[in-house]
C-alpha cells in the first residue's frame, strides 16, 4: 500500500520527540512515547530526523525484517550533504564491521568471530572468569576497608574490570591499554552529550590505538582473537579489509565490556532495592540466570541503539517509516511494554515467565554474538558477589545515583555500595 494514497487517512500524531543528548533514565519517557504507539518520530542530535521503535512485538518484527538494513549506504542524508561532516553519530553509521554489514558481508564477518563465542567455547572461559571474579572481590573489599564509611564504587572496582579483563584477554590487549580503551569507548559510544570535536578526537584516538594493538599482535601472534582475525585477513586478502579488522576489534572491545558493565550494575541496583527478589534466589525459587534475564528486560544495559534503515517505505504496527530513515532500536522501551510483559511490566520480578523473551540482545541475523559470554560473566559475578557479601547494599538512595549522560547506554555513572548493611 502506498502511504500517500488519498484513500488512506493520515492520523494526527504528536510532534517528533527531540532527543536530549544528555539522556538520563529512559523509563518515564519510554512510557509516554509508547502510549502514542509502537513507533515514534524523533529528532536526533544535530537536527536529524529519525524514528525509534518502542513496542516489543513491533521491535521484534523490525529487527528481523528482510527490508531493514544496517549498511549506511541506505541512509541517503548521510551522503548527500544534508548532514554535517562532524555529526557525532556518524561513528555509528560509518563504522565497518559485522554490526554495519548486511547479507553475505555480514555472514562473512560474523563467521570470523562466531566460533570464539559459542556456548561451548565460552564455557571453557568459566575457570578464568571465576578466578578474575575472586580477585576483584578481594579488591572491592580492600577498597571499602580503606574508604571513609566503608563505601566503595562497585562499578570501578568490580563491574568494569571483570568484563574488560575478559574481553581484553580474548583480544590479546595488553593491560596497560585497558584504562584508556574504556575512556575512549565510553566517550565514543556511551556519552552522547560530548561535543562533535570531542567525539571525533576520541574516534581518531580509538582507531589509532586499535591499529597499534593489531600491529603488536601482527608482530607477535598469539592464541587470541585479534591474531586469528589478522591471520584470516592475511591468509585471504578479500576476507577482511584493514578497516573491517579495526572495526571488528572495536566492536568486540566496546560491546564486550560496556554492556556487561551496565548489566552487572543494573542487576545489583535492582536486587538491592528489591530484597524480596534476592531472597527468592537465595531460597532456590529462582536462579541467577533468571536475575540476568529479568534485569535485561526490566533495565537493560542499552536504551536506544542506532541505527537501522528501511530499504523501502515500511509499515510497522500501523506507522509508516520512510525509506532511508535512521531508526533506533528502543530496547529499554520494549522491555517494559505492558502489552507483552503484562500490566506489572514496571515491576522487577525474577519469576516473570516472559523475561527470557526480552530483546536486549537483539533479534534475527544481528542477534548479539557475545550473548553467551555476557550471560556467563554476569551470572558468575552476581552469584559470587552476593555470596561473599550477603548484606551488600547501596550507600545512597537509588534515585540519587547519577545516571549515565547518554540516550544509548542505560546505567549509572557510579555505584557506591557498603558491603555490610550495618
From TrEMBL:
Keywords: Heme, Iron, Metal-binding, Monooxygenase, Oxidoreductase. This is Cytochrome P450. Pfam families: p450 (PF00067). It comes from the Bacteria. Belongs to the cytochrome P450 family. It comes from Streptomyces goshikiensis. PROSITE patterns: CYTOCHROME_P450.
